[in-house]
Amino acid sequence: MSRSPLDVALEAARAAGEVLLGWSGRLAPEDVEEKAKNDVVSRADRESEDVCRRILLGAFPGDVFLGEEAGLSGPSADAPCWVVDPLDGTANFVRGFPHWSVSVARTEQGPLGKLTVGVVWDPLKGDLFAGEAGGGAFRNGRRLRVAARPGLDGASLATGFPFRQAGAIDPYLRLFREVFLSVRSLRRAGSAALDLAYVAGGVFDGFFELGLAPWDTAAGALLVEEAGGVVTDFAGGGLWRTSGNVLAGVPGVHGALVELASRAGAGEAAR
User: Fold this and answer.
1) Rounded to an integer, what distance in angstroms lies between the CA atom of residue 192 and that of residue 215?
2) Does residue 142 carry a pLDDT above 90?
3) Domain shared by 52 and 89, yes or no
4) What domain range includes position 127?
5) Is residue 150 part of a domain?
6) pLDDT, position 269
7) Residues 11 and 124 in one domain
8) How many domains does the chain have?
9) Cα(251)–Cα(248) distance, rounded to whole angstroms?
10) Does any domain span residue 151?
């Protein structure tokens, strides 16, 4: 009997989590290297990705695989694609800050195709977020809905700093200031996948970050949309998966964020 993509995604995420727990607090200096300035990778990332690839392609050998560490591989660009971040929050993991996750998503066709499955697994906290297109989003088996908040007043938001896009720092800081002065709280914890999952679960009301990669956002974005939220680029359009500039939130908060991004000039920077 064939298994569903969601079941296989759950298996892969949990297995990758076991790998990461085995490495947690045990990395030696030689186990960590810098891929680019301020962007590190560890043996834990690579072993976690290897486990995900083996499980996902073992169940669906005709699929494409896009992982943060090994890139894109597969028989056909038109096949369904697994988009995997084997360790979202590597900088946290390496430093011993207990906030990181495994992100596994599947598309209908190719790396930028319609998202159909999303799983974000936080093995330290035992938090499992999972969803399917048209089937809803769930946290540890409980159905998720975004928070019912009409605007930024009283809102709690998450963000990430554009460390890969130094040239975007000025519009980002202008937007950060506008948001900071408009909301109740603003957090930067260092795992975009978990930030998006928390938006889906009502922990946060919105999220914004520049310069993200597809594997950072694919699973979390599906969760937000299935929980009733909105995901766009900073200009309110649909280019977030190619630009990496992601603005997500409950409908009222999302609309207000798009307006602030335009006022700060971040919408133009996102194009």
Assistant:
1) 10
2) yes
3) yes
4) 5-143
5) no
6) 52
7) yes
8) 2
9) 9
10) no
Per-residue pLDDT, 36: 79
What was the pLDDT predicted at 1?
60
Q: Which of 237, 163, 155, 234 is nearest to 198 (CA)?
A: 155
Of the three residues 143, 172, 193, the one that is the final residue of a domain is 143
Q: Distance between CA atoms of 123 and 100, rounded to whole angstroms?
A: 9
Q: State the Cα–Cα distance between residues 87 and 73, nearest whole angstrom.
A: 19
Last residue of a domain, one of 143, 169, 189: 143
The verdict on 167 and 128 lying in the same domain is no
Residues in the chain: 271
Q: Give the chain's mean pLDDT.
A: 93
Give pLDDT, residue 192.
98
Q: Are residues 137 and 9 in the same domain?
A: yes
Phi, psi of 262 (to 5 degrees): -65, -45
Query: Phi and psi dihedrals of 180, rounded to 5?
Result: -55, -40
Longest pairwise C-alpha distance within the chain: 55
Is the same domain home to 136 and 167? no
What are the start-end ranges of the E strands in the chain? 32-36, 39-42, 64-67, 71-73, 81-88, 101-107, 115-122, 127-132, 136-139, 142-143, 156-159, 185-187, 206-209, 230-232, 246-249
3-state helix, strand, coil in the chain (%, to 5): 40, 25, 35
Q: Give 41-80 pLDDT, tens digit per residue.
A: 889 999 999 999 999 999 999 999 999 998 888 877 789 9
Q: What is the CATH number of the domain that holds 47?
A: 3.30.540.10
**Domain assignment of residue 149, yes or no:** no
Summarised one tens digit per residue, pLDDT across range 174-185 is: 999 999 999 999
Place of tokens 């930028």: 112
